[in-house]
Amino acid sequence: MQKSQKNQESAEALAVQALAFVASDPELLPRFLAITGIEAQQIRRAAQEPGFLAGVLHFILAHEPTLLRFSQEAGIAPGEVGIAARALPLGNDDHERSS
User: Fold this and answer.
1) How far apart are CA 30 and CA 56, in angstroms?
2) For 1-99, where are the alpha helices, taking DSSP H only?
3) What is the band of 96 on the pLDDT scale with cuts at 50, 70, 90?
4) CA-CA distances (angstroms) from residue 59 to 3, 5, 11, 94?
5) What does residue 64 show for φ and ψ, rounded to 5 degrees?
6) Residue 67, CB half-sphere, CA atoms under 13 Å: how many?
7) CA of 13: how far to CAs of 3, 16, 35, in Å?
8) Full-model pTM
């Protein structure tokens, strides 16, 4: 397996973990749905679209307290989330940050 393919698979796994983190949080999920414009029942289908998983990681990255909570729960350094986002399709650094 090539390194880039392995990196993308690891990034996808982290993004799925991030999606579960968001979905299990009663405050984050409504915010995520509002920002993305999708409905809860559409998440499974949307997750198969190019860029969706990178978008989940960008959502995490855009709010430092959320990033820190997710990183702690996942047992990773916060910087790993950005690395994973960039390894995914449409995962460039063009995202907004909020406080």
Assistant:
1) 13
2) 3-23, 28-36, 43-46, 52-61, 64-74, 79-87
3) very low
4) 26, 23, 15, 12
5) -55, -45
6) 19
7) 15, 5, 22
8) 0.84
